[in-house]
Design brief:
The complex is a heterotrimer of chains A (about 500), B (about 425) and C (about 425). With about 500 residues, chain A is of the alpha/beta class. Chain A contains 17 helices and 24 strands. Chain A has a six-stranded mixed sheet with strand order 6-9-10-3-11-12, sandwiched between helices. The termini of chain A are far apart. With about 425 residues, chain B is mostly helical. Chain B is about 65% helix and about 0% strand. Classes of the chains: A alpha/beta (about 500), B mainly alpha (about 425), C mainly alpha (about 425).
Chain lengths: ~500, ~425, ~425
């Protein structure tokens, strides 16, 4: 089925998210949509999928104009979508998730065995290895993604949209996904592959369309160089490496020894992890999401109490400390999910800039807040970190993602730090903000702090880290130098154990 | 109910708010706000005006619905509807005059004389205290439905000190008031502790504790020393004169104390480190925890203070006038406090204004019942309707055909998992 | 623990980590302290128990099949119960599985038996009556209300307004029942009134996205106000015409009603109670076995996911809330035409809130909510049963269901998981 988009436009208020987009996807091709975070790729696909109404322009399928008022219309027309955030009900089984919306039922009563048979059939046809009776919430993300693909296939999708599908996968799983994409293409399915990763585009794409600031800025063949693609995507030449000098290693500032964390359900999520970081060093924790990195750094700050093991900052045991003591002792913490843990959306920029500093002078005098000092601090930080905000009394929730992250980073770097922990520090940011945050993290290192970053983006890990610790299944599988190859690190992320070695 | 504190691998939460919410300015669209035309900062009047408009319209709408209720239920009016075809004009005039008389009596009962206004203030005073307690808890993210029970406990303790102790003037009043504060704080604090320690949802717990407090009061009123000697009625002795709030001509000091309490809550929420913590916990507990704040502490302190404020409402009920303690002491103040807090948008100033409005309705309602036979319960209906309309500004605007504006609500929206 | 850290890190058994789990340690401390408090209470009761026998009368004087009363020694039985509870407490410390729940239930029964021995000892002219029938009656509105809540909340709309639905339902049942002189039409009127409240809940929460807890509270106040106002507007001489409905009379189910002890309790009841049985089965089946039920649960858990497969989220929620209104209305009818007849102000006396607590305790499952409701029903009837003894002041007895709710919610339920999107309005751009 051929898809054509003509002059599609979407505005939110005065902001134009998509500006007269033209796009043609031929049957049986993998069409890559390349653009950085916030370029408008997701908005475009949401219009195509009936989730967002367009303001102007039209969509044609095999030359016929179509209107999608809801995703139901899009599905009926043969469009399937695998969303960046999976659209799966975690407490339902695979079969229930797949049938939802087009249930196999007679007289309104569900026929679960029919649904399960359909899942098995599709799973075998495309070699997806998915059990119909498994609870989705208990499946690894890679398998959940395959459930999403089955969901789309069971609706007989002839155009499949994959929105940033590789963000949650290991390099090897990414390769597997690409194989699946190719086999779908060979069966005649058109695929729209949305990504900001240049390597993947070149590996699997048949045609590439680049979007920048809501406009199509050009098309390319997969043979063009990464540098050219990057320049099209960002609009200027981009240095793909972070500008970073040699690290000036100092004392071991932070040491974790045999840390084990058990979650509320009694599952061991971090298993006997030992790490140390020196001042002036960036240690990257890398691994597929959900392998214990989140819990590990939470235990470092004291948000989770380790069940076993010790954590030492400058030689003092802090494993029984709560976040308040840890922050006081000189740990800076940039949480993974800034909206959730990093700031209070309804608070002003000024308030968020002192969210963990308000207790101490000069921001408080005993019981009472010093509003003047809080405002002055805000003015200073806004200038220093180039936070784009209307004023210091604007609620943070109305800032862009990049500026929200700058607020968090500015706050955490506005006091003397022994250790900076930054988790997914650039997730969802545009290239300009990414460069800025990276520079600040390196700056903290050069000022003598020990730095731990957690990232699922291998590019970020390679460009920032002085050492890389790879986590899988709650364990640190290995600690390696950033010179390691992508294939090797991928194997480690998948749990291939080498000899246990800890540096320092 | 309760927070599932750690859920590894649960990426589903963010998915809810994910892809399809292109509210400009967040991650999805990644807009730099400075790329758009910036709205200029609103003046104070501009930011308050829509609230005032909606509130006023809500009151008018509630009165209209109330009028319809009177027309369809007033016995006299209903009997004339029977002759509608014989004498349509008569039926309409009877109906409108029933409504007009009721509302006129309502108004003059609230503001018609100095004594009436004193009555309004007297009714408003406990509502200010109770409303402040509910508002404060609200700002910390807790639905405190328990003002009623906290009030009962405050009244029990204040009453006990008031009619069993013998102390000199001023000291006695102070002792009784402090006892009331402590009583309410304990009853509220229990909720905070249960919420913080076990995750028990405060809505259920506060509602249940209201009934428990009422049961305890009823039991006490049949036991020494709470039962008035020489009587089998469930009512207490009279409070010692020294323990009464000073009053003059229908006005009493309680109202001034209520205004002071409002000022204190304003300072606490807006100007103190503790209030900063409380508001942060209320708006985003996870971020607050990550920033080193203690959620338990915020919950417990908030409920202690909220209980203390409701306890003050209880002192007003036993020490405000020479009435004995009975099981009717709280009337409907507990639930009215919630509606007052909602109407006042959980701000101390708004709460005072809302309490004055409801005080006027209730004080006037008594006169209305006496003069026109329209039952006092109409005021309950009016109060609920006002809050209902105010809680849905979009509805009021659509009725008024006012253009929708971005700023709406003002009340925390969250569910059990909150 | 020390022995675990002494072993080599490679072969640490999984249970070793479990022992260190702070959550499990907390749960353990909680369980032990609950048992300890229970045991202390029981010791006090056993000490205070007078000698002699206590009599249990399993059948009521009106039952067809009479069974002679059973006598048992009060103090010995109490002591046996106490020993049993201590044993179960130790057992609960050791086991970690679902057995704990079973132990808890058994311990609860032992506690109640011990309590009865104490309360009834030394008053041999009064026999312990069979609590089944009264418990079931008291539980009926709770179950129906909880079913309404289950339908709403499974679809993602919090329903705190069950109490309001009860009040409106009870009032409408009384007035319609009186006017039509039929309790059945009264029930129909109750359903209509309750669905009206449900419609308000739906419109304000789904369309206008008002905070649903706030909305529920306001609707309760509104329903209390409207019913109170209308009741006040009825002049005394019109009461027989408007507020004196005929009540439902019991209908014995042939055969089943003849079963000794449980027969009269379960199968010689009014139609409303049979409707309640059917409702539990119906709601369970609809929610978990039908296409519509799957969609209801999907919009309550992950509305965006439901939307992306073409399900109309708001429409499903409207349907679920309105359908729930039917059951809450029937629950409301119980208070007037289902029991004593005339409506009075605040007649449901907080039962709607207890139904909500039962729903939460039952973890948003119709069957779980039913079991929880039966427990509360038992607590509610207890006060009437014990009133005759005059051993505990009736004012204090009256608070037992509410205290039980607090203990249940705080002690045994704690952080249960609501449907993920419960209380969150869904707005599409």
């Amino acid at each position: 089925m051929q898809l054509e988009i003509r002059g599609l436009t979407k505005r939110f208020g005065t902001f134009t998210a998509n500006d007269a987009i033209d796009l043609v996807v031929e049957p049986g091709e993998i069409h890559c949509l390349l653009g950085e975070n916030g370029a408008g790729k997701t908005t475009l696909m949401n219009m195509l999928y009936g989730l967002v109404d367009s303001d102007e322009g039209e969509i044609l399928l095999d030359g016929e104009p179509v209107t999608f008022r809801s995703p139901g219309d899009a599905i009926d027309a043969g469009i399937g979508m695998v969303h960046q955030h999976f659209m799966l009900v975690p407490v339902f089984t695979v079969a229930e998730n797949v049938m939802l919306g087009r249930e196999q039922a007679s007289l309104g009563v569900l026929q679960r065995s029919k649904a399960a048979a359909r899942v098995t059939e599709l799973s075998e046809q495309y070699g997806l290895a998915v059990q119909p009776d498994a609870l989705v919430g208990a499946l690894p993300v890679g398998v959940q993604q395959r459930v999403e693909i089955i969901k789309a296939l069971s609706n007989e999708a002839r155009i499949l949209i994959l929105d940033e599908p590789t963000a949650v996968l290991t390099p090897q799983e990414t390769d597997e996904l690409m194989d699946i994409m190719r086999s779908l293409r060979d069966n005649g399915t058109s695929i729209i592959f949305i990504t900001h990763k240049l390597r993947e585009v070149k590996a699997v794409g048949d045609k590439i369309t680049v979007i920048r600031r809501g406009k199509v800025v050009g098309t390319a063949k997969p043979t063009v160089s990464e540098a050219e693609l990057a320049e099209m995507m960002v609009g200027r030449a981009v240095s793909l490496r972070v500008d970073k000098g040699e690290s000036d290693l100092g004392e071991v500032v932070f040491a974790a020894n045999d840390v084990t964390v058990v979650d509320d359900r009694g599952v061991t999520v971090v298993n006997q992890v030992s790490l140390d970081v020196r001042s002036g060093e960036i240690l990257a924790l890398c691994g597929v999401q959900g392998n214990g990195q989140t819990e590990l750094i939470k235990s470092f700050l004291g948000l989770l109490k380790p069940a076993e093991g010790s954590i030492a900052l400058s030689g003092d045991d802090i494993s029984r400390h709560g976040p308040r003591e840890s922050l006081r002792d000189g740990i800076g913490f940039v949480p993974e999910d800034r909206k959730h843990d990093g700031f209070v959306g309804s608070f002003t920029v000024a308030e968020n800039l002192v969210l963990d500093l308000y207790r101490d002078p000069p921001f408080s005098s005993g019981l009472s807040l010093s509003l003047a000092e809080i405002d002055r601090n805000a003015e200073d930080r806004i200038v220093e970190f180039d936070i784009r905000t209307q004023s210091s009394s604007t609620p943070v929730e109305s800032l862009s993602g990049g500026n929200q992250q700058k607020v968090v980073v500015a706050r955490e770097l506005s006091r003397e730090l022994k250790l900076l922990i930054a988790s997914q520090p650039t997730r969802g940011l545009d290239v300009g903000s990414i460069e800025f945050v990276h520079k600040r993290i390196v700056g903290a290192r050069d000022a003598g702090a020990a730095v731990i970053i957690v990232s699922t983006e291998l590019d970020e890990v390679f460009s920032l880290a002085d050492r890389i610790a790879v986590m899988c299944n709650g364990r640190v599988v290995d600690v390696v130098d950033p010179g390691i190859s992508r294939e090797d690190i991928g194997l480690l992320m998948a749990g291939a154990e080498r000899e246990m070695q800890t540096h320092g | 109910m309760g927070e599932p504190e750690q859920e590894p691998g649960a990426g589903t939460d963010e998915a809810d708010s994910g892809a399809d919410e292109p509210d400009a300015g967040t991650d999805e669209s990644g807009v730099e706000p400075d790329e758009r035309t910036q709205p200029r900062a609103k003046t104070w009047i501009e930011s308050v005006l829509p609230t005032v408009q909606v509130s006023f319209a809500s009151i008018v709408l509630a009165l209209i619905v109330g009028a319809v209720l009177i027309m369809v239920s007033n016995d006299h009016v209903v009997s004339t509807w029977g002759y509608f075809f014989a004498d349509p004009w008569g039926a309409v005039t009877t109906a409108t005059s029933a409504v007009w008389d009721s509302y006129k009596a309502l108004f003059s009962g609230a503001f018609g004389s100095s004594a009436a206004f004193g009555g309004t203030l007297g009714k408003a005073t406990p509502l200010i205290f109770g409303g402040l307690g509910v508002s404060l808890a609200f700002r910390v993210g807790l639905f405190n439905i328990g003002a009623q029970g906290q009030l009962f406990f405050g009244a029990i303790c204040a009453g006990y000190v008031g009619f069993t102790w013998n102390l000199p003037p001023v000291v006695h009043l102070l002792a009784a008031v402090v006892a009331g504060i402590i009583g309410g704080a304990i009853w509220g604090g229990v909720v905070g502790v249960l919420k913080a320690r076990t995750g028990a949802h405060e809505v259920i717990v506060t509602i249940m504790l209201n009934y428990v407090a009422l049961g305890i009061l009823r039991w006490l009123l049949l036991t020494n020393p709470f039962q008035i000697p020489g009587s089998n009625n469930p009512q207490s002795p009279y409070v010692d004169d020294n323990a009464l709030y000073p009053h003059a001509g229908g006005y009493n000091l309680g109202f001034v104390v209520a205004l002071l309490a409002a000022g204190l809550v304003w300072w606490l929420l807006g100007r103190s480190t503790l209030g900063f913590e409380m508001r942060a916990v209320g708006a985003n507990p996870d971020a607050a925890r990550t920033a080193g704040m203690s959620i338990s502490k915020a919950y417990i302190l908030a409920m202690l203070i909220a209980g203390a404020l409701a306890g003050l409402a209880g002192t007003q009920q036993v020490l405000g006038h020479r009435d004995p303690l009975t099981d009717g002491i709280a009337g409907s103040i507990g639930f009215d406090s919630i509606t007052v807090a909602l109407l006042g948008r959980a701000s101390p100033f708004g709460t005072v204004v809302a309490a004055l409005l409801f005080g006027a309705l209730q004080s006037g309602g008594i006169q209305m019942q006496a003069a026109t036979n329209t039952p006092l319960t109409l005021t309950t209906v009016l109060q609920a309707l006002i809050v209902l309309f105010i809680a849905a500004p979009a509805l009021v605007r659509s009725i008024l055909r006012v253009r929708a504006r971005a700023d709406a609500g003002g009340v925390l929206a969250k569910g059990w998992n909150g | 623990m020390s022995e675990a850290s002494a072993t080599s890190p490679r072969d640490v058994p999984r249970t070793a980590a479990v022992v260190h789990n702070p959550a499990i340690r907390r749960a353990r401390v909680k369980v032990v302290s609950i048992y300890a408090v229970t045991a202390v209470l029981m010791v006090w009761m056993v000490v205070k128990t007078a000698g002699g026998n206590v009599q249990f009368q399993p059948t009521s004087p009106f039952d067809a099949n009479q069974i002679s009363p059973i006598d048992f020694p009060a103090r010995t039985t109490g002591l046996a119960c106490l020993i049993g509870v201590v044993a179960l407490g130790v057992g609960s410390y050791v086991v970690l599985s679902w057995l704990r729940i079973l132990f808890g239930v058994v311990a609860g029964f032992a506690f109640m038996l011990c309590f009865f021995c104490w309360a009834y000892s030394g008053q041999e002219q009064i026999a312990i009556t069979n609590p089944l029938s009264d418990s079931l009656k008291a539980a009926t509105p709770l179950i129906l209300g909880a079913l309404a809540g289950a339908l709403c909340e499974r679809s993602g709309v919090i329903n705190v307004a069950i109490e309001g639905q009860f009040l409106m339902g009870a009032f409408a049942a009384s007035v319609v029942g009186t006017l039509a002189w039929s309790p059945y039409l009264g029930m129909l009127g109750a359903v209509g009134a309750s669905v009206l409240v449900a419609a308000l809940l739906a419109v304000f929460s789904i369309k206008y996205q008002v905070n649903q807890v706030v909305l529920g509270v306001v609707l309760v106040v509104l329903a209390g106000g409207v019913t109170g106002f209308l009741l006040d507007q009825i002049p005394d001489n019109k009461i027989p015409d408007l507020n004196q409905p005929p009540v439902l009379s019991p209908v014995a189910i042939p055969g089943l009603a003849k079963i000794p002890v449980i027969g009269p309790a379960f199968f010689d009841q009014t139609v409303l109670i049979y409707i309640m049985y059917a409702s539990v089965a119906l709601v369970t089946f609809v929610l978990f076995e039908t296409k519509w039920g799957l969609r209801v649960r999907a919009v309550g858990e992950h509305p965006t996911a439901a939307d992306t497969v073409g399900i109309k989220v708001r429409r499903i929620r409207y349907q679920a809330v309105l359908f729930g209104g039917v059951f809450a209305g029937l629950g409301g009818a119980f208070f007037t035409v289902g029991s004593n007849g005339a409506f009075d102000k605040d007649l449901s006396a907080g039962n709607g809130f207890i139904a909500l607590a039962a729903l939460i305790m039952g973890r948003w499952h119709p069957i779980g909510a039913t079991i929880a409701s039966l427990f509360f029903g038992f607590m509610l009837q207890l006060q009437f049963q014990l009133q005759v003894l005059q051993r505990i002041p009736s004012e204090l007895l009256a608070i037992t269901p509410y205290v039980a709710t607090v203990i249940a919610v705080a002690g045994f339920v704690g952080r249960v998981r609501a449907p993920a999107a419960d209380g969150e309005p869904y707005s599409k751009s």
